[in-house]
Amino acid sequence: MARFKPQRTLDRGSSLIETALVVPILVLMLCFAVDIGYFFIVAANLVSSSRNAVLYSGQGFVSPAQQQLPSAGTSGSLADTAGVAGLAGGDLSGLANMSSQTSVQVCSKGIGVTQTSNGYITNCSTFPSGSLSFTPDQDPESASGMLAQRVDVVYTVSPPIPLNFFTFTMPALSVHWSAEMRAID
Questions:
Q1: pLDDT tens across 109-130, in order?
Q2: Does 10 reside within a domain?
């Protein structure tokens, strides 16, 4: 009785071809994951930066009843600026190109106050000197001796891994976050 051997197909090397086709897709997915993760890190830093800066602008190191509010900042690079803008810039110091891609607008009673028909609005300064023009909100109870302080932080996010292929590019994105707090007038 003769035994028949089953015919074997030649499939040697097919796993290498599959790997060569899948690895570029996996690397691309990893790069997108890094870029998206970086956007979330930037968002978290902007939130905490504006929050810490506006708390400091209203309270300073002591309490709301202190004699003088902290300064909004000084001219120069955001990394070297003192005051409220320097605190906001310091919170963002871990981000790539922070000093060239970040603008901070501080609206504080320490800068000045403008009277409107409905009450008072704090004046604003931008650091480094630029053209941010976010309008501060009027305090809903400005007659009660309180003024709304505001800090706006704008950071232009460039993806850490620039992906330029075919017709798709990951664009630079400007992210804006603001925080407001009341200060005793």
A1: 888 888 877 778 888 888 877 7
A2: no
Confidence at residue 22, expressed as pLDDT on a 0 to 100 scale: 93
Q: Domain containing 128: what range?
A: 15-184
Cβ atoms 32, 151 nearer than 8 A:
no
Assigned domain for 92 exists? yes
Mean pLDDT in residue range 121-146: 77
**Nearest alpha carbon to residue 149 among 36, 55, 41, 25:** 55
What's the number of domains the chain is made of?
1
**In-domain check, residue 125:** yes
| Cβ-based neighbours of 114, under 8 Å, separated by 6 or more | 120, 121, 122, 123
The predicted-structure confidence for 28-63, as pLDDT tens digits, reads as follows: 889 888 888 888 888 888 888 888 888 888 776 555
The CA-atom distances, in angstroms, between 115 and each of 60, 122, 138, 161, 178 are 24, 9, 10, 48, 22
Q: How far apart are CA 21 and CA 8, in angstroms?
A: 25
Q: Given this model, what pLDDT does residue 23 score? A: 93
Residue 128 within a domain: yes
